[in-house]
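Repro:
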Amino acid sequence: MKKTIVIIGGGFAGINVALQLAKKDGFHVILVDRNNYNFFPPLLYQVATGFLEVSNISYPFRKLFQKYDNVNFRLGELQKIVPEANKVILTTGELSYDYLVIATGTESNYFGIENIKKYGTPMKTLNDATNMRNFLLLKMEEATIETDEIEKKKLTTIVIAGGGPTGVEIAGMLSEMRKNIFRKDYPELAGYKGAIYLVDGGPKVLAPMSEKAQKYTFDTLVKLGVNVKLNKQVKDYVNDTVIFADGETIQTKILIWAAGVTATVFEGIPATSYGRGKRLLVDEFNKVAGTTNIFAIGDTCFQTTDKNFPNGHPQVAQVAIQQGKNLAKNFLRTERNESLVPFVYTDKGSMAIIGTTKAVADLPKPELHFTGFIAWFMWLFIHLVSLINYRNQLRTLYNWVAAFLTKDQSLRMIIRPASKHTEDAKTPTVLVPDAK
């Protein structure tokens, strides 16, 4: 009898479990995701700024699994787990399992600030990225016809909350676009540079990286014209005004929120199984505390058994990838009655891109730090080879080369799909009377 493994979430963690178990006798894998595609989160900001197409960083699950007889895909969202019956209830039905793997990642954390949740622009999903691109372009179009100077300044001022890799990369990209693209696309705004602010509640940008990387990043952003404000905790966003805890304010119609993430609480999992940031507490084999056959991997889990990371692993792609592969191998060992291997994270370093030929990279063993062109080239290479297939790699490479040579790109389209079949369509359909 084949063991059924249900995986909730097709990100870095979930997809690696599925692919490792593909074509393996004794297992039937069902991957569940709210989207019908896998996507590459580190490049979301390039979709949001129009340098890459959506298809460059995404790939349909069903096409990916075509050649694997023992792997299936189910579109749906997890609503409830019923551990005593070994089943999950989805928005699209129910599934029974022998092993359940929760790999749902995280979502934007608004820290209870409802106005930011309502009016801020997040950056966690492909939907977020395309919405952000549309939003930015629409605001630029509005600015070209705005006659009120105060309103025009709000439309051309951008505040990015969060000094991590996402915030830094967006700030750097937008500053280069302001210099090389916006001035040509929007001649009506000649003389309006448009202020870009990067704000963070902590004392440094790229907090997890080395001091050398932090200093280089800060200095580079300032040279690019980004106003970097540290130790600035966003308190609210009211009437086009970002309000900080110290009372300072910035007026803008564009607040990009990249300030934090949180995991999700699932019905059916005991409250005692959750730790910091709503992350599921797991043992050294990624089994959820208080359960017998439920596992959690990636950003949604909190593991303290790794001696090198007693306070939990960083929520980065490499942790998710390695946990996914290790869990899959442990499932195979279980079937062969072999001893399980505890998860130990191999830190391969961290990096962030700031702009063209400007990036930072930290390598742990040996301890090396790179900045500038070398780090930029390393960033491009690592992210290119990490894409899920050759098709995505070639298309992304083509777009990068074209953008590098021309300092421009041609993907700045405002696309607002609207359909009577789409519940959340926000663009009204305009009915044109019959000419007859």
